[in-house]
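Revision sheet: structure tokens.
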Amino acid sequence: MKNTPEPTISFLGCGSMNEAILRGLLAGGLPPERVTATVRGAERAAELRSTHGITVLATSEDPEANRVAAAGADVVIMGVKPVGTIDLAREIGPVLKPTTTVLSVAAAISLAMLEAALPDGQPVIRSMPNTPSRLGRGVLSISAGTHADTALMSQAREILGSAGTVVDIPESQVDALSAVSGSGPAYVFYLAEAMAAAGVELGLDPDLAKVLATETVAGAGLMLAEPGADPIALRRAVTSPNGTTEQAIATFDRLDLPVIVAAGARSASNRAKAISEELDS
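Predicted:
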């Protein structure tokens, strides 16, 4: 954000995901005085003020906190739970500048739902982040609403880029993306659980098995994060002909592990669609 005027950004709701984005922005040089956040409780507000030096308003102390924070902001990042997102959009709509970008990181809330709740013509962008965003290693999608032009999408890309890799996708692909990157960290953690359990079955101490599985998965992730890394090439490099790893991979193939993973992702995508329909009904 060095080559353009610094935007004023308001985080409505500052849970782990919004705070991850906030941390990245501040680390990248955004002045704290350009940031306002809202939270429910006074204790959490005090914690954020102390940690980040930003203005934080608590709705428990001021019922108008969200409207106060949204008024005059260049970008409003909505990070409340999906069930409360549309009500929040309706609450802040009357005080938004016509040029304010509303960026939602709420799952299952479509662009059409947001645009219907906000003033006509309000620029809206939808993002689907994942939990590694807390470490600056997330994947965050952006999908443009009807009135989000190229410049606003570029601004959103820069803001969210502080938390990881930003990908542009049409909203029609959000559920598929969520099934891979949104739910994906849980798949990896599940694999680590299964590896640890396998170690115990083979006679290892449970604590040792957990360390081995955890550090192996984490280390493999770092290898995947290296420039130019390719998962197929990395797997083949570890899989010596007629070796132990080849036998394990052959067993996974025989049990159709890729089919199982695809079926799980399909179920996740279908559930995302169903949740959106429930919230829109």
